[in-house]
Amino acid sequence: MEYGINIPESPGKRVVVIGAGFGGLNVVKGLKNAGMQIVVVDKNNYHQFQPLLYQVATSGLEPTAIAFPVRGIFKGFKNFHFLMSEVKKIEPTRNVIATEAGELSYDFLVIAAGADTNYFGIENIRHISMGLKSVPEALQLRNRIYKSMEIVSRVVDEKEKEKFLNFVVVGGGATGIELAGAVAELRRKVLPRDFPEIDFSQMKIFLLNANERLLDAFQPQTSEKTKKDLQAMGIIVMNNAKVADYRDDAVIYNNEERIYTKNVVWASGIIANVFDGIDNLGQGKRIITDKYCRVKRLDGGIYDNLYAIGDIAVIPEYVMPQVAQVAIQQAQLAVYNITHEDKIMFTYKDKGKMATIGRNKAVAEIDKKRFSGFFAWFLWLFIHLLYIIGFRSRLEVFSNWVWNYVARDQPIRSIIEIKRDET
């Protein structure tokens, strides 16, 4: 089948945005009244609310609650276009990107394609483990959890049971602790009702963290509080546990220590989604930019009309977390610098950090103040609800949270897989 790009030529400037994440969406919103043609290119036709992927994975939310069609988000925007296609190459000297559908020219390009899971070259881990960076991965993990329980309910051999009852989460950041806590909540209240034939005292949840403490971007006191809360939920927390391999149905860490498991979730490290044509890359393949978020060339110069923001980019002079707030603030900066002759430099304004651990448990740091327990948990819920797109989705998420809290139930427990007929 032959494809083409049916976006009309623009009489004014054209801004192409690669990626429909937090950064890309905020670029479009900022340019709404700028009189430019805006084209968003993404291989998916939706924006996903990544902070709640773990709740899809643990059957608390449907994917539709956190995935929003890009065309629907910007319906009514004048001179806005969306192209569902994968970007293959960027040619800055020609002001062109090459996609699966063909070439697309630009006057300004904003690269906001985010990042993917970094397996640090451990191929066996990449093949066996599950990431949690996308809606399909969240659904895959949800299926794995419930398929493991179905297998345990039929298996007789105790050693085989152990492999399916052991869950290993690798990574001591927010994603790792939130997922480990959510699985612990399933083990405590939800799974025993569905599978009365299984002895859930045998189900173990391991959290392996290569660093000295959890949440190392937080204050040490917060890290210690998080560890204690997780341990109180029955999670086995291992700091300084560096995963090296997966062999013979076992996660290998440190000095050939082993955990036998069929369920490994990799929440440790990210690597930028880069493209051919951009060669000036830093650690994690992140695109190196100047303080104005403009992409630097290998010869030390810059591309005046090419910006990179969010997880895909790095400003060497700054150390910044790879979180949504950075992408949002850099998007706002890129909008200003695209629409103004006088450029401004990026300065990150830390609005705080937070992570949820489980029911009534969370930690937060805002303006050098630390919070934990119910107040931090409620604050986490409130702030995340604010960032959900659309009233209907907010209502859906809120109603699910209320139901889960009151009924102590996760209602979305179906195993749904699409199997193609190979014949």
Write the layout of secondary structure elements.
Blueprint lengths: L13 E5 L3 H9 L6 E6 L3 E3 L4 H5 L9 E3 H4 L6 E5 L2 E5 L4 E4 L2 E4 L2 E4 L3 E3 L5 H6 L6 H18 L5 H8 E5 L3 H21 L9 E5 L11 H13 L2 E4 L4 E5 L2 E4 L3 E4 L2 E4 L3 E3 L14 E2 L5 E3 L5 E7 L4 E2 L9 H16 L13 E6 L2 E6 L2 E4 H15 L3 H17 L16
Parallel strand pairs: 1-2, 1-9, 2-5, 9-21, 11-12, 11-17, 12-13, 19-22
Antiparallel strand pairs: 3-4, 6-7, 7-8, 10-18, 14-15, 15-16, 20-21, 23-24, 24-25
What would you note in describing this structure?
The structure is a single chain. With 423 residues, the protein is an alpha/beta fold. The chain folds into three domains: 14-117 and 270-339, 3-Layer(bba) Sandwich (FAD/NAD(P)-binding domain), CATH 3.50.50; 123-268, 3-Layer(bba) Sandwich (FAD/NAD(P)-binding domain), CATH 3.50.50; 351-407, no CATH class. It has eleven helices and 25 strands. The chain has helices at residues 22-30, 53-57, 70-73, 123-128, 135-152, 158-165, 174-194, 220-232, 324-339, 373-387, 391-407, and strands at residues 14-18, 37-42, 46-48, 67-69, 80-84, 87-91, 96-99, 102-105, 108-111, 115-117, 166-170, 204-208, 235-238, 243-247, 250-253, 257-260, 263-266, 270-272, 287-288, 294-296, 302-308, 313-314, 353-358, 361-366, 369-372. A six-stranded mixed sheet has the order 5-2-1-9-21-20, with helices on one face. Strands 13-12-11-17 form a four-stranded parallel sheet. A three-stranded antiparallel sheet has the order 6-7-8, with no helix packed on it. A hairpin with a 5-residue loop joins strand 20 and strand 21. Helix 1 runs parallel beside helix 9 and helix 5 (135-152) packs antiparallel against helix 6. The longest helix is centred in the middle third of the chain and has 21 residues, at 174-194. The radius of gyration is 22 Å and the shape is globular.
